[in-house]
Amino acid sequence: MSARTHRQEFFVRNLRRGSIFLAIGGLGFVVDAVVYNLLVFAGGHGPLFDAPLIAKTIAVVAGLVVTYLGNKLLTYRDRKAPISFTQVGRYAVVNVAAIALQLGCLAFSRYVLGFDSLLADNIAGTLIGQTLATGFRYVLYTLWVFPHSPGPDPITLVEEHVEHPDHHTAS
What we know:
The protein is mostly helical. It contains 4 helices and no strands. The model is unreliable at 153-164 and 167-171 (pLDDT under 50).
């Protein structure tokens, strides 16, 4: 296999898996945003309006439950490793670091820049923080949390189309 073909296969494999990962992440993003906004802004000043970092942590954890299940069952369904304490531990470590990225973005906006509006919190904590955390998670989930297991990969396999001489299409 040439280096170019290998790169193309790598790109296609990650495009396919990444698309599923992003769809699952999109659902987690919606859960995160809805929970955060209910906790901080429901009725104008939600129950955690003065504690946005706690609210964001709760929102992120709710989103993580959704994304773990989706990634285990869909994104990495070809990776047959059973759920184990090691896998859950790795997932937790990656997500603690990812949560720190999100909280760091929100804290910078709130406490350094002094922004505390609905729009500012959602841009800093949800949009920017989530984007950084998503890229971080994809790389570490793929390489460390859900390691590749031997055998064909039904999601990312690049199939080659081969015409057989005895195969004719009816017209």
